[in-house]
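User: Hi! I'm working on a homework problem where we have to compare a predicted structure to a textbook description. Could you give me the structure for the chain below?
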Amino acid sequence: MLGVIVTLHEFGHLLAAKIFGVYCKEFSFGFGPKLLSHKGKETEYCLRAIPLGGFVAMAGDTDNDLETKVEAEDLPPERTLTGIANWKRIIIMMAGIMMNILLAIVIYSMMILSSGTYATSTKPVITNVLEDSPALKAGLKEGDIVTKVEFDNGLSYRPETYLELINFLDTYDGNGPWIMTVERDGSSVRFDVFPEFKEDQQRYMVGIGFSNKAVEAVKVNIFNCWKYGFEFAMFILKLTFSSLLTLFQGKNLDSLSGPIGIYSTVSQTASLGMEYYLQLIAMVSINVGIVNALPLPIFDGGRVLLLLIEAIIRRPLSEKAQNAVMSASMALLLLLFIFVMYNDISKIIGG
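Assistant: Happy to help. Predicted structure tokens:
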């Protein structure tokens, strides 16, 4: 699964590079020894032995020198990654991330199409507060519009619709209050609401209700499924980004998983059926896209950041500076890898 997702990411780089005329010597699925290859007009398309990702070997890009070194000395500058305009290089770097998001949109759109209907909803306006409920005790009132919810673990979300609010509340881990921010009479007010677990519904609730017209099921066809697939992908994207922010705050670190944890999750999800497996692929693809957008030079986002810095200072960064930044990024990534592997092994031993 990761091999396919990463290879599609690299395919985005390949398409953008070819659009701008950058010479691409090889596009590969996997790493290690070649198993199969096909020579195109100028690019060799390969299947390699270790299916944990893929790469595109572009002229002027040294990232894949260990697998395929591209000799760029005999090429005109405009056919190399370093010889084209910075804005073109930025598009090439970002194309992989966009491909990951596109994969998620396609999967969600097809799943929504197969269901035949899609639930749309209005703004999260509270229309009812139950007597003797946590919401009433906290001070929530009818007419309040929920604008933000934050959990004790730092995870927060700004719902635009009722369904976004409900989907986010379902991720609650049972610890601490919900810090709910509402719009009331044009002002923003915060409340600490302590949810109660309802055995009959097997979920945490605070006793707020919404209009019967808050949710509407619309019929889905091949034309409008893309709109709804995009909307749902954006919801998952925002939720994932919010989760990432909590990690930078030093919270919820035990939720991080590495290859062992991912394998366990994929194995469990695949046993539930194709629908759940496809949802996981879409979610992991979004995660891969977001991680690659991080401003670390080893990722696409970091390379874009370096290009923007060069544009601001109007000269390339020295090779020494680039090597120093890259080394620091590699060290951080190595520490993160060690940490997530420790997390995965601890969960197995503890479980």
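For your comparison, note the following. Residues 85-115+227-351 form one domain. The radius of gyration is 24 Å. Good luck with the assignment!
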